[in-house]
Each structure stands twice: as structure tokens, then as C-alpha cells.
Inverse folding.
């Protein structure tokens, strides 16, 4: 199957392109947000192929995976085919709704030609999609292996754009974590942080970031209002114990034996201090986190679910 898909969310796309299809990735001359092509810091298979946008019109495409509202217009302009009518299409909604939650209307609400597939059940519940067909394919990640050592007695947080995104990703909670014993923040545009007790590690390749994360004693998920972060699932795969805010999909993703999930900031701080002080507790919780992540967010299940969704859209003769 030839699947047209944009490189929008690197971690999600890394898992998606591991399947048994040919993945066509648009490339614009300046490699802007509408044509990044292949990832630079993730390891993608050869079946993820860059295609200059001017060549898309002449290619056979079986299905398009949309991830942003304006991509439908791009497909029609670049290929001459309208998603949902001339070309089978599905829309992946990665994000929690913004605006007047829980009344926020989805951009594809009420149309029936393009199903909306959410990455969490929480997102499906909170977006108002009207009569549009909806479904859920939960995340799956490439297993990085059990790497946790906990040799660095500090907390780890992974987040992109913490200054711009602020309270949504819990940037205001970093001083609290620093008081608990120090916190290391990994991600894009994290060097803009200037807080006592906070160290930053910017734009590490995925392999290097996994190695660094796994040396920290505990992973702390600070997001108040985002979809379920793949960094959380990856940390669990690494065998890291978890302390997380009880928001969005997190309570369903992190079982009690894997760490602490709470909306009580005092309990959050106490849990971080406990696991920083007790490497045996951290090891037990990390092992439970890894087992839970492998069971629920394994790559095989994710790819199988997507095969089912794509096959339902594409004629059997393809």
C-alpha cells in the first residue's frame, strides 16, 4: 500500500513508518512544515521515501493520512485528487481540544467522508466531532529496551517549547521539582529555560536522549493539558519509574505499581523525593512501568490496528 503522510510528529511517525507499506513523505524546496521529508534525529526504514511535492501528481497513492486541517487542501492542489472522494483518507487527531472545552468543534466535524482517528480515548471523548465517524488507535512505540540505571539522582522531564507552552506542559512546576533534588529537561527549545536547579538538554537525537533519560532516577510527566505524551510511554519502555499529573489519558496509561499519578502537588513532590531516595523502589516501579507499556503500547499492536484501519479504506484489489 502506498501511504501519503506528512512528517508532523516525529515520534508518532517513527512508529507509523515501521509498518509493511511504502510511506510517501512530501518534500518542499525549503523543507518547511509542509514538506520536511524524512526525520533527521530518528531512525526510519528505507520504505519511508521522500517525494518532491511537484512529483506527487504523477504518483499512484492508495491512501492519505491527514494530520492538520489544511493538508486536505494541499493534497487536492498537489495531486489533483480530493481526500475522501477521489482518494481514500483518514485524519489523525493528535491533540487535546483547545478553546471552549468540552464544546470545541473539530475541524472535520459532521462530514462523513474522512474518519477521524484519535490517539487516545480521552481525546475522542472531549472533541466534538458531530456526525463524523470517529475511532481510536492508541499509541505504540519502537521498544528502546530496558536501559534504566537511575545512576543520576535527579528527575527527568521531556517537553518541547516549555517557555512558549507554559502551564499547558507544566513549566511552572519545574521549580518545585528542582527543590525535590534537581530536574533535567530534555526537548526542543528548552535552553530558553533559566531556572535554579534545572539543567537542559536540547535537540538530542532520539537514541542519545533515551540513553540520557534512563540514567535519571525518575521520569516526571508535568503536562496539564496535552495529549498522552510519547515521551512518557518511551520512558516507561526504558524501565523508568513514573510520577505524573493525573490529567488527560495518564490515569489509564500508568498503573499504580508503576509510580504515582496524582493531581495533588504536595503528593507529587513527596513521590519524587521518595523515589529519588530509594533506588530499590525506583527499580520495582520502573519494571512495572515497562511491563505495562509493552502490554498496552507495543509497536506490533499499533501497526496491526493501523493496518486494519487503512485496509478498511482501500479497495481490496490494491
Amino acid at each position: 500500500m502506498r501511504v501519503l503522510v506528512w512528517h508532523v510528529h516525529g515520534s508518532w511517525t517513527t512508529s507509523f513508518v515501521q509498518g509493511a507499506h511504502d510511506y510517501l513523505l512530501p518534500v518542499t524546496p525549503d523543507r518547511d512544515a509542509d514538506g520536511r521529508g524524512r526525520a533527521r534525529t530518528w531512525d526510519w526504514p528505507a520504505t519511508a521515501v521522500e517525494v518532491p511535492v511537484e512529483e506527487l501528481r504523477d504518483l499512484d497513492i492508495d491512501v492519505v493520512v491527514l494530520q492538520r486541517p489544511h493538508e486536505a487542501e494541499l493534497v487536492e492542489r498537489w495531486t489533483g485528487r480530493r481526500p475522501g472522494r477521489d482518494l481514500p483518507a483518514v485524519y489523525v487527531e493528535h491533540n487535546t481540544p483547545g478553546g471552549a472545552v468540552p464544546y470545541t468543534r473539530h475541524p472535520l466535524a459532521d462530514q462523513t467522508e474522512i474518519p477521524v482517528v484519535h490517539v487516545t480515548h480521552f481525546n475522542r471523548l472531549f472533541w466534538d466531532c458531530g456526525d463524523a465517524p470517529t475511532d481510536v488507535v492508541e499509541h505504540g512505540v519502537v521498544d528502546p529496551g530496558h536501559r534504566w540505571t537511575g545512576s543520576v539522582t535527579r528527575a527527568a522531564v521531556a517537553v518541547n517549547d516549555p517557555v512558549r507552552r507554559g502551564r499547558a506542559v507544566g513549566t511552572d512546576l519545574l521549580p518545585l521539582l528542582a527543590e525535590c533534588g534537581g530536574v533535567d529537561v530534555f526537548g526542543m527549545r528548552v535552553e530558553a529555560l533559566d531556572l535554579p536547579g534545572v539543567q537542559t538538554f536540547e535537540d538530542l537525537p532520539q537514541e542519545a536522549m533515551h540513553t540520557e533519560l534512563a540514567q535519571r532516577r525518575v521520569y516526571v510527566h508535568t503536562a496539564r493539558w496535552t495529549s498522552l505524551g510519547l515521551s512518557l510511554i518511551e520512558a516507561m519502555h526504558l524501565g523508568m519509574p513514573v510520577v505524573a499529573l493525573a490529567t488527560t489519558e495518564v490515569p489509564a496509561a500508568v498503573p499504580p505499581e508503576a509510580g504515582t499519578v496524582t493531581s495533588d502537588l504536595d503528593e507529587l513532590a513527596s513521590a519524587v523525593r521518595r523515589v529519588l531516595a530509594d533506588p530499590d523502589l525506583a527499580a520495582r516501579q520502573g519494571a512495572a512501568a515497562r511491563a505495562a507499556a509493552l502490554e498496552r503500547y507495543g509497536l506490533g499492536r499499533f501497526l496491526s490496528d493501523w493496518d486494519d484501519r487503512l485496509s478498511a479504506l482501500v479497495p481490496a484489489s490494491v
Summary: Residues 152-296 form a domain with the Rossmann fold fold (CATH 3.40.50.2000).
